[in-house]
Amino acid sequence: MTGFVLGLAVLLGAQAASAICNPNLVRSIHSGPDLVRAVGPLASVAAKPDLGLGQYSLRWFGHSSFAIRSGTGTRVVADPNFDVTPGITADAVTVSNGHYTHNNVEAVRGNPLVLRGITLDQRWQPVRRKVKDIVVVNLPSARNYDFTRIANSIFVFEMGSLCLAHLGNIGHLLTEKQQKLLRRVDVMMIPIDARNNLGFSDLVKVIEQVKPPIVLPMHYDDPHQAEYFASFLDGRYPVQRQPDSRLVLTRRMLPKSTEFFVLPHPNPYATRRYWGGWDDDR
């Protein structure tokens, strides 16, 4: 627990910077050492101009892998998966934990900046980085309740007027300080496998702690798992089943209260039709 307190002190103790998500999250972003491992210079990545002004996109590549893209074409890949990340090109990669299903950074092309939320000896390390027009910061977390075993990192992405949170392999309810820092999250990606992470009941508690407009399920390989979780919700939240694994986000499309957005699983054994049209994100 000491490491968690020290980590929050790093985030809260420096000069403030403006932020949509939460000003406390990006304090000291332009000062102090960068405690991250970088692989080469930041790549310049061309993107097709298929997003309009004020639009952003998320594409799910299965398990916990997402491509997060701003309207200007800046792209960050979160938790690249060994099996399903298809050689995507990005400006930066975030890694919430060291398991191979979250840490296949070699699969990401473009010589991206690699932002690791934990060290090799399983300690949380702070990330406070601006990748072009996407601000990336993280919060200390763990894969168990007592914060003493395997570390995890909660990554927060601010782009334009939207704030996204990727919970990685969270294994505990949010602390009071975490809850306060995440209070302005618009889209929250939560692990729903209920095996290596929180069970369904505790996941609902985490959702209630933040109350984000959009909740996206992740960290499952059985395409039916999202339906199991939706059934467990039993009408507590509206469930929106999306037609594509890519979700275009705008401030205006956010629900007024929490809704559960299910993206089709991109597993080729589930269906081949969701594998089409990925060239714009490679």
What distinguishing features does this structure have?
single chain; 282 residues; alpha/beta; 8-stranded mixed β-sheet; 6-stranded mixed β-sheet; 4 helices; 14 strands; 13% helix; 24% strand; globular; disordered C terminus
Helix content: 10-25%
Helix and strand content put the structural class at alpha/beta
Distance between the termini: 39 Å
The percentage of residues in β strands lies in: 15-25%
What is the approximate shape? globular
What is the residue-averaged pLDDT? Answer: 77
Element-level helix/strand string: HEEEEEEEEEHEHEHEEE
Strand arrangement, major sheet = 6-7-8-9-10-11-14-12
Specify the biggest β-sheet: 8 strands, mixed
Number of helices: 4
Descriptive overview:
The protein is α/β, with parallel strands linked by helices. It has four helices and 14 strands. Helix 3 (200-210) links the parallel strand 10 (187-191) and strand 11. The model is unreliable at 1-18, 28-48 and 270-282 (pLDDT under 50).
A few lines on this structure:
Helices cover 13% and strands 24% of the residues.
Topology of this protein?
Layout lengths: L1 H11 L43 E5 L5 E4 L5 E4 L13 E4 L17 E4 L11 E4 L2 E9 L8 E9 L2 E5 L9 H6 L5 E5 L8 H11 L3 E5 L6 H9 L5 E3 L4 E4 L9 E4 L20
Parallel strand pairs: 3-4, 4-5, 9-10, 10-11, 11-14, 12-14
Antiparallel strand pairs: 1-2, 1-13, 2-3, 6-7, 7-8, 8-9
